[in-house]
């Protein structure tokens, strides 16, 4: 087993991202606004593919953190499982958008609420379901899932 270099992840950036996802998807549900679900999907997938373009994390970096509204909480961790979790959530929100546009509101909102519940689980209890899936895929030897848990 190779030793991985220590890397840092700002938990506050991840939490702000989760707050935006939860808040916007709940607002979309309450107002029955499909385009807002689609916007969340695009932001999540774009932030996964190109982390520097992650809108919610940029709001944290350029507004909330400099204003002192949210303080950094940097820990030693792997960024890959968190990116995978966001990408997986983005896929589910994309499927939610597709279902809503196809006239399947029960399925669409169920998928959106699944993402809300899993993001809330991570935000409030510290359990990242997508990270868990990432590490399980790594244990199975699936290529591309090589980061090992830091703790």
Structure explained in plain terms:
The chain is mostly helical and 151 residues long. It has one domain. Helix content is 68%, strand content 4%. The chain is built from 6 helices and 2 strands; from the N terminus they run E-H-H-H-E-H-H-H. The chain has helices spanning 11-31, 34-49, 55-64, 79-101, 105-125, 129-139; strands at residues 8-10, 74-76. It has a two-stranded antiparallel sheet with strand order 1-2. Helix 1 packs antiparallel against helix 2 (34-49), helix 1 (11-31) crosses helix 3 and helix 4 runs antiparallel to helix 5. The chain is globular. It starts with 7 loop residues before the first strand and ends in a 12-residue tail after the last helix.
Poorly predicted sequence stretches spanning 5 or more consecutive residues = none
In angstroms, what separates the terminal alpha carbons?
A: 15 Å
What is the gyration radius calculated from CA atoms? 16 Å
Got a strand count? Answer: 2
Structural class determined from secondary elements: mainly alpha
Please tell me what the overall shape is.
globular
In quaternary terms, these chains amount to: single chain
State mean pLDDT (0 to 100 scale): 94
The H-and-E topology, N to C, reads as EHHHEHHH
How is the secondary structure organized here?
Layout: E1 8-10, H1 11-31, H2 34-49, H3 55-64, E2 74-76, H4 79-101, H5 105-125, H6 129-139
Antiparallel strand pairs: 1-2
How is this structure best summarized?
It is built from six helices and two strands. By secondary structure, the chain is mostly helical.
């Amino acid at each position: 087993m190779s030793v991985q270099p220590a890397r840092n992840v700002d938990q506050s950036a991840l939490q702000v991202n989760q707050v935006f996802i939860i808040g916007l998807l709940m607002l979309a549900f309450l107002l029955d606004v499909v385009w807002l679900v689609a916007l969340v999907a695009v932001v999540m997938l774009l932030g996964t593919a190109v982390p520097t373009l992650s809108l919610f994390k940029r709001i944290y970096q350029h507004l909330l953190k400099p204003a002192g509204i949210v303080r950094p909480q940097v820990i030693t961790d792997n960024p890959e499982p968190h990116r995978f979790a966001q990408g997986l959530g983005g896929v589910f929100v994309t499927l939610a958008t597709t279902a809503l546009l196809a006239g399947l509101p029960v399925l669409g909102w169920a998928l959106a609420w699944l993402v809300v519940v899993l993001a809330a689980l991570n935000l409030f209890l510290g359990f990242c379901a997508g990270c868990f899936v990432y590490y399980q895929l790594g244990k199975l030897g699936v290529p591309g899932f090589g980061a090992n848990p830091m703790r």
